[in-house]
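Hi R.,

Here's the chain you asked about this morning:
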Amino acid sequence: MTDETGGIARRPVLQSALGLAVGLAATALPAAAGDTAEGRPGDFNFLAGEWRISHRRLKPETGEWDEFTGEATCWTILNGAGSIEELRIPARNFAGVGIRLFETDRKIWSDFWVNAKSGVLTTPGLTGIFRNGEGVFEADEMDGDQPIKVRGTWDRITPNSHRWHQTVSHDGGKTWQVNWTMDWVRA
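And here is the predicted structure, written out as tokens:
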């Protein structure tokens, strides 16, 4: 399906991705044992709008940092119980969609990703909540045949800027290494 410019129409793609994410949200990881904090609809409202992003990503093969720019358009949906992010990195011919959904029964958020090149929704996604102005989301994943923990953190949130950064742990969460930062500034 294409839009009037000949490009892929965004709304049907986003609606399809959202439908998949809603169906898979029930498979998300549970909140940490003993965690009594709760997420709320609207936690991601700060993300709505147009953004310019400075990326800094660690190259695993060299240990050097790769720096590049991008942009995003974000929407709050479902009365604050969802958030959609369309990320674009024109210089790298890259695009993707972040889908964040609030699970009302467990009072946690699930954060999913779709890379435009593959069109595959990552599951189960990272789960987490916002506490003291910082959103922390984690998942158990694999790096080849080695289990790892992945953490995405939203912090430094102001009306016109915020940061997202990703850390990984190869030792069950004892130590963490930053491998990607994104500094967002409202466009």
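One quick note: Residues 10-24 form the longest helix (15 residues).

Cheers,
M.
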